[in-house]
């Protein structure tokens, strides 16, 4: 919600006079809109832990558009958020990069070993885990607000201290989709950002609507670096490697990825192409619902959640940007069926990417061209 008028001038003056200034703000300090699982104190064996609940529980809408009670969300967040990596568990991991795309390669660790660390990591960073499917390596956070963008002043400090901090809010929300995959040497970890921005929809400024904003690769990079530290990599090493990646990140020439005969040809090995295409699909609003790396196939469908529903009837809203396969000259229902994205090595250094419908047949020329262009732009 937009920043609200908080208090009258007299009360505000009293608050200001009663508060001391705080130190420098942290660049990132997220807090989820959904209620998080509370960390309770250890209770002696002969006593029962007191029951706690939110006074005004709100339903949570997952990525499939279904509502779940806060209790279900809390149940989904029972993994301890203060998981610590011991010295003998520290992983050999690094961030890899191709253009604006980044991911973590963890050597010698299976997805099952990395999963609880990931869950604890996002909880410690202020996010609620909304959905998780460890069997297929998919996790998604709820929408959360970067409270650090509010800044610090005496009024906010006092409101936070007395439990009224939520009356101040930014017009932005973020969520992340997390994907883990078994690789030849261990596990690959991918973070994909999605953002929303609240705007006024009339001159009176008494009604607002959420609309999408572009994915933020740099924010993804920040959390990838933080997760490296959680894996046990020294902070100085992480910072040094980040500088090296930035220094070596040259724009990829357009000849490295091109359209050819209805397919996309990416000048990269199959292993790297597999990682890059997965990230490109998720950044374009397509959820990976299944995959078969041995066959080189992704099964994807358009992401559907409460943010999409809020704007699907508006001109130029999120569905119009994500449903780029729609015919703009006539009304069309958003695509609901799955797409099949096939990757095959063209040679040792090139990969052919084909786009098919769920039955494996080609898309119409207009649909194919629109989707190809989106992927070409993302893979530059």
Explain what the structure shows.
With 380 residues, this protein is α+β, with helices and mostly antiparallel strands. Helices cover 27% and strands 27% of the residues. It has two domains: 27-32 and 57-250, no CATH class; 252-315 and 336-380, Outer membrane protein assembly factor BamC (TATA-Binding Protein), CATH 3.30.310. The protein is built from ten helices and 17 strands. Strands 4, 5, 6, 7, 9, 10 and 11 form a seven-stranded antiparallel β-sheet that branches. Strands 12-13-17-16-15-14 form a six-stranded antiparallel β-sheet, with helices on one face. It has a two-stranded antiparallel ribbon with strand order 1-8. Strand 2 and strand 3 (67-68) form a beta hairpin. The radius of gyration is 23 Å and the shape is globular. The model is unreliable at 3-25, 39-88 and 306-334 (pLDDT under 50).
Summarize the structure.
With 380 residues, this protein is α+β, with helices and mostly antiparallel strands.
How would you spell out the order of helices and strands?
A: HEEEHEEHEEEHEEEHHEEHEEHHEEH
Radius of gyration, in angstroms, nearest whole number: 23 Å
Shape: globular
Oligomer: single chain
Number of domains: 2
Share in helix: 25-40%
Mean pLDDT: 75
Structural class: alpha+beta
Query: What's the helix count?
Result: 10
Signal peptide: 1-22
Protein name: Beta-barrel assembly machine subunit BamC
Keywords: Signal
């Amino acid at each position: 919600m937009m920043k609200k008028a908080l208090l009258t001038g007299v009360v505000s003056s009293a608050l200001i006079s009663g508060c001391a200034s705080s130190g420098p703000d942290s660049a990132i300090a997220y807090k989820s809109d959904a209620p998080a699982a509370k960390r309770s104190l250890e209770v002696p064996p002969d006593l029962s832990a007191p029951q706690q609940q939110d006074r005004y529980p709100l339903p949570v809408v997952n990525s499939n558009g279904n509502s779940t009670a806060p209790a279900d969300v809390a149940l989904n967040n029972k993994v301890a958020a203060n998981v610590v990596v011991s010295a003998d568990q520290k992983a050999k991991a690094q961030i890899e990069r191709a253009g604006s795309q980044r991911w973590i390669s963890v050597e010698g660790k299976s997805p099952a070993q990395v999963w609880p660390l990931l869950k604890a990591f996002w909880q410690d960073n202020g996010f609620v885990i909304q959905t998780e499917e460890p069997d297929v390596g998919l996790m998604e956070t709820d929408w959360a607000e970067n409270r650090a963008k509010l800044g610090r002043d005496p009024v906010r400090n006092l409101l936070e201290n007395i439990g009224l901090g939520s009356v101040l809010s930014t017009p932005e929300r973020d969520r992340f989709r997390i994907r883990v995959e078994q690789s030849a040497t261990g596990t690959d970890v991918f973070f994909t950002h999605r953002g929303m921005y609240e705007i006024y929809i009339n001159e009176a400024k008494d009604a607002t609507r959420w609309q999408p904003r572009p994915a933020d690769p740099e924010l993804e990079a920040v959390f990838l670096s933080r997760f490296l530290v959680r894996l046990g990599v020294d902070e100085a090493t992480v910072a040094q490697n980040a500088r090296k990646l930035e220094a070596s990140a040259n724009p990829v020439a357009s000849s490295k990825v091109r359209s050819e005969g209805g397919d996309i040809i990416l000048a990269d090995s199959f292993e790297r192409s597999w990682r890059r295409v997965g990230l490109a699909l998720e950044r374009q609003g397509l959820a990976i619902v299944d995959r078969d790396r041995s066959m080189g196939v992704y099964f994807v469908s358009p992401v559907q959640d409460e943010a999409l529903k809020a704007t699907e009837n508006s001109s130029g809203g999120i569905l119009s940007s994500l449903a780029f396969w729609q015919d703009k000259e006539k009304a069309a229902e958003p695509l609901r069926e799955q797409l099949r994205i096939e990757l095959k090595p063209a040679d040792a250094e090139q990969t052919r990417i084909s786009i098919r419908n769920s039955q494996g047949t080609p898309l119409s020329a207009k649909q194919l061209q629109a989707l190809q262009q989106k992927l070409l732009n993302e893979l530059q």
